[in-house]
Amino acid sequence: MKAKLKFIVPLVIIAFLISWLVFAGVRDSMVYYITVEELLEDVPDVYGQKVRVSGTVVHGSIKNELDESLQFTMADGKEKIDVEYDGVIPDIFTDGVEAVVEGSISTDNIFVADLLLAKCPTKYESDEARYQRKKG
Amino acid sequence: MKIAETDPFSFKEMRKALFFLTFALMVLGTWMTFFYAPTEVVMGHVQRIFYFHMGTVWAATVAFTVVFVASIYYLVKETAKWDTLAYCSAEIGMLLLTLTIITGSIWAKPVWGTWWTWDPQLTTTFILWVLYAVYLLLRSGAGGRGKKARYSAIFAIVAFVDLPVVYISARIKRGISPVVFGPGGGGIDPAMMQTLLVVLLGFTLLFILLLRERIRIMNMETALYTRGR
Amino acid sequence: MKEILLIFRKDLLVEWRSKQIFPTMLIFSLLLLLIFNVAFEFRSDIDFHTISAVVWITFIFSGLLALGRSFSLEKENNAFSFLLLIPVSRSYIYLGKLLSNLVMVIVSEIFILPLFLLFFLFDAKGLSLMDTILPFLGVTVLGTIGFVSLGTFFSSMAVNTKLRDMMLPLLVFPLIIPVIITSVGVCSSILEGRPLGYYAFSLQILVCFDIIFVLLCSLLFEYLIEDSGD
User: What is the ipTM of this complex?
Assistant: First the structure.
């Protein structure tokens, strides 16, 4: 009996701790990216620092001329920021897509990105379904 | 021929049935992936790799769970049967997880715009891959059969318990990988869901088939080895 | 309980008389410190996160030296089979070994940490050394418990494999990644001068990791060691 208890008690503690870790709170100790709002809050300190920022591409803001770098505006809720980028553009990058940019913000509040990533949609729908939804 | 019959799990008819069922489901799944499932509106045809990606990652998860359970059984019962099961399952799981990472990369390049990024989900998958690579390495470098079985079983258990811990430490609220299912997820077109279910079932059967065949080969090897002595 | 302390005392006594591991660890850490500084071209604008990462890499590499030695020492003259003769549960042997390894690794860290912060934060960056070094040490102890518990456990496994010492980092590194991520995160927040509330949750997580690893390893240690002592 005592031998069994010596086995079960640690197992229960381990199981409890792991489930506590999983459920009780996974807060952001290491943030993969910050939002536009969080970026602008830090503004004087953040100049020149490398950061990853995420936001939605504002409709109609994309300017992409052949001899120039890509320019667009990224927003989340209330705050927005202009982004400049020179490099490979993901296929699904268009108006309204959620994008993640890596780079730094310059003193004239333009974000210069070294890398542009697009987040894939969390809702997978067919052409037809979207057409039906838009119509209805 | 006698060697094959030493396998206690092997029933000729069942094996044949399993083989044909798996084959049929994999063909059906592939057909549905390309012709039945509608084209995703934002990502286009690239999104079709999703079914294969999910199929491999699901089967890999099953494989590693089997390794964990078989390892516990081995430590308690100490019969070679459980060790064989754990080892064969780990080998197949490793293959499937490698495919998961490769298909994920192929998908990520056009959609996200990069082959790889240190998103928590990707980081955890990568660590899982390394853990089972070490598991297989430990087996080749441990020594005698009993020691090999015991050590790898212990490592598999620690690794499996470590996984949620890895996930917690790497996870943050916001990742780039999509959360399609569950609360907070976006949902999926019904025809896509049907395709996914067929593919998942196909991969589950494929895993079982591969596992049984691998165990059979392993048992033959052991039988030959012991007879040779 | 008494047996744990006996093994602990024995290990420290062996080290006190032979003076093998401890000086090796110190010199090794200093060498790493030198290499990092050379590799960074003696720059003084290295950010806090990089410094924390470098400190932890050094702790883990030099710690593994001591851990690898811990059980290969017992292999000589077959001392381990005599250890097994102690009529107590195997987990006591593990806990004794864990304690002695912890003391050795932590003491060497206490020696090396001030040097590290001094060399890397040469211009001090407006930090007071005393305010950062004490909390930094606290986190170091927590993180060290996490990696030494797994390290001690797998050290006893690695010495019995064909690959010996080569196997130890392979077994330990992937498993201690959560400890490294959390410890480095907390350490860099401390250097940045954040308040306790900012990283309190990470500290809780770290304590959880320690408890999980120590319990799991002492449980499984019973299975790790066979009677033949192979």
Answer: 0.87
